[in-house]
Amino acid sequence: MVIALAVLSQASFFQNATEAFLSRFTSASETEGGLEGTIGNRYLGGMISALTGTSNTPFFGYGIGMGTNVGSMLLSGGTQFLIAEEEWARLIGEMGPLFGIIVIFLRVGFCIKVAFACYEKLSASDFLPWILLSNGLLLIPQGQWAQPTALGFSTLIAGLLIASLRSAPLKRVVRTS
């Protein structure tokens, strides 16, 4: 495989594809502000902006579904963000500060619990849960659950994570005399 990669890296079509990929990766990193902009502002900053932007939100929120595309279409006649574009802000806007934060902490708590369990499996040389965790930590805590496809993928990866953490059942050996 290493030899094939070395041979392919000399071909012009492979060099063009590699150069285009690296150029796209570099320009996206510069646009987003590097690692700090991507993880700090987009991922972790979503929680801070969700909490600071809820001063005018009613205690019980505006109602579940108002932040979805269907809710927007029914209430305003068009698809627009009535509450917020980010998932955590949408949860707080729909359910209110108390219940929205509870749901957010449930999602984050589930991810923390699964992450520790995946690490235990990794130390036992079971790599599958650890590999699935990389996708789960992006989709489960902050995935856009207002959109059915994204909700389905979040549910699928959560189910796969839980299934990968199960141990294989012990087989009984029946001895006959």
From TrEMBL:
Alphabetical keyword list: Membrane, Transmembrane, Transmembrane helix
Source organism superkingdom: Bacteria
Transmembrane intervals: 59-83, 95-116, 145-165
Name of the protein described by the UniProt record: Uncharacterized protein
